[in-house]
Amino acid sequence: xADEQKPTxxxxxxxxxxxxxxxxxQKHWQRLYNQIPQLKATGIDNMWIPPGCKASSPSGNGYDVxxxxxxxxxxxxxxxxxxxxxxxxxxxxxxKANEVGMGIYWDAVLNHKAAADxxxxxxxxxxxxxxxxxxxxxPYEINxxxxxxxxxxxxxxxxxxxxxxxxxxxxxxxxxxxxxxxxILGDHEKGWADSEDVDDEKGNYDYLMFADLDYxxxxxxxxxxxxxxxxxxxxxxxxxxFDAVKHYSEDFLRKFITRLxxxxxxxxxxxxxxxxxELSDMSRYLERMGKKFSLFDAPLVYNFSKxxxxxxxxxxxxxxxxxxxxxxINAVTLVMNHDTQPxxxxxxxxxxxxxxxxxxxxxxxxxGYPCIFxxxxxxxxxxxxxxxxxxxxxxxxxxxxKLYAYGLQQDYFDFATCIGWVxxxxxxxxxxxxxxxxxxxxxxxxMHVGEMHAGEIWTDILGWNKREVTIDQDxxxxxxxxxxxxxxxxxxxxxxxxxxxxxxTNIYKT
Length: 510
Hints:
This is Glycoside hydrolase family 13 protein. This protein is an alpha/beta fold. Among the domains are: about 115-215, Beta Barrel (Elongation Factor Tu (Ef-tu), domain 3), CATH 2.40.30.140; about 410-500, Immunoglobulin-like. About 20% of the residues lie in helices and about 25% in strands. It has helices at about 30-40, 85-100, 220-235, 250-265, 280-290, 300-310, 325, 355-365, 375-380, 395-405; strands at about 15, 45-50, 55, 65, 105-110, 110-115, 120-130, 130-135, 140-145, 165-175, 180-185, 210-215, 240, 270, 295, 330-335, 370-375, 410, 420-425, 435-440, 445-450, 455-460, 470, 475-480, 485-490. The strands form five sheets. Strands 1-2-5-13-14-15-16-17 form an eight-stranded parallel barrel. Helix 1 packs parallel to helix 2 (about 85-100). The longest helix is centred in the middle third of the chain and has 17 residues, at about 220-235. The protein is elongated, with a radius of gyration of 25 Å. The model is unreliable at about 340-345 (pLDDT under 50).
């Protein structure tokens, strides 16, 4: 009985705190600072922020990383600040998050370096871009952008400089102005990382872009291990999102995580970007990482995309062959992120009508750790702007997760184009919710929410459905949703109902 009375932990939700086309006005840290109290109150507990290290230019999003040890502090690559702002503004924003109880996840870009300070001669060999295990030239000397001495920072924080022998590959030879994938050779052939240490797509996927770091070199390994500890002392963060994990050494990443645990204490959250629709490869990766790691559920995003583009698609298949179904503890579920976003100009990965359905499927169910996307919450800037998605209902879905999506889950996956489920609530979070969604005509489900709710009147928190449902004496209600839409039903007098509809998505106000 004592076990039953333990407080129910609040559901956790994370947010990717940027989109690719955020204006390069160096005010992003300031905008996030102003939004943090509202985000936390709505149910965002942790925020994955963009790579805040100095990029190749003031417009760089950070994936073109130049100097890990420059968080917007030194005059390098066109200025002091990063696209997002200065180090002082970053620290202020992180401190604000800590103050309200929101965790910050850092986006660690550790695979490569960009925008070298000078060229160096080195022996290299061209490889087939579609199979990097096949060489397409004899070894010859190239003039590569692989020299990094960080003149603006000097030796502050780290005295390590980078030379050709710290890299395994590059993509440009200044002598003949040829772009190709070059495997850098030393006195003996360095080669790519071992096939067991990186993904085997394209034969060996060690090389991704720019100057590819060689983690078999002890100076590279030690400098980046030291950076992780250094960063955790500069900023009070709760975890890291690792970019491009299938492209660099798993062995190194395990050392990186262990070093943080040993020096800064346990309790970190780590998630990797392993963007692949092969579930078996992802499961094997988690197994090799010792399960102390999460991955973004790319197969689920592919399922959402397919369902959104297929008329009359069978919604009951939505979780087939997904990470959240097979590895629910290690799955970060998502609908959209910056990796899928740039292609919106050509073809939306997920059709707009389906986004609220998809968000309900990750936010209001038991399994997975959901991550919402800044661009869906606040809209997308750039040449092809988009307004906030879900008809502005995404904050309400996040708040519904925070307040009502608790307890046992009963699925009503009994009709191809209309599915539903019930969350029964818990002893101390008793309200529960009932969700109905349809990708065709108006939907209807008779669902059991519990005899304890008999006589209650339930309404749709989204306001898209104006009906009222009275729960009968057996605990059943007949819940409906509009066509190609959803409804989230909760007791109209449930605690917190007054909080809905108040989120301000106008983050760019002057």
